[in-house]
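Lest this sound abstract, we let one protein speak, letters for residues, whole numbers for local backbone shapes, and leave readers to judge:
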Amino acid sequence: MDNILEVKKLNCVFNKGKSTEVTALKDVSFQLRRGECLGIIGESGSGKSTSARIITRLTKKTSGEVYIDGQSMEDIKPKELYKTIQMVFQTPVESFNPRLKVGTSVGESLRNAGLSKDEVSKRVEKLLEECGLTRDYAKRYPHELSGGECQRAAIARALANEPKILICDEATSSLDVTVQKEIIALLNDIRKKAKWDISIMFISHDIALVQSFCDRVVVMNKGEVVEAGDANDIITNPKEEYTKKLIASVL
């Protein structure tokens, strides 16, 4: 299986005032294989979300390289990057413009791609239905949806341009357990039924969820990769002391 995403020796240092620097990432390297789901786990502040934000150009790296489908991220135009990578965030309601109806937000990238009004409307309705929402949700505002419904709409929006990579940054952590399972089932369904190869980078502090959903896992601590490998192997038989303590604290 070839790599759709390669992160090589990524470093990120934040300046916290004139004389204070904070190292968020230190020589972070990992790969996301085509068609797989890669879990990223670690405590708060371990560098999980910073890695994702650099990959999506929401945060600037200090040094290192990111390759997407073999091409340096530096050579990919922003418009093309956002067609290739999409992100689903922790707080779905906050990720939507509260003044716009859900259908308008879901269809934004389609309008930007030049589709007609009718084409966008039909595609939005289909996307919502594929994510478990009826077409009438397109006419509702974000605050009129529950957390789970809003996250389904956020996933529909992320899938509009058929991205090669879907990054889920704690996408289930603000939802109750029942809804979490529904969202994971939806993501599994998307992986199986997508007419294109989609790879998922799943950032979560829920280790049991990562074990049940992900193919491989990367363990991070204080901005560094501690260990990586098959999800079930790492979680049932961790080699590094940090991973052992992390897993023992939650399982």
User: Anything to note?
Assistant: The two ends are 31 Å apart (CA to CA). Residues 12 and 61 are 5 Å apart (CA to CA). The longest strand covers residues 3-15.
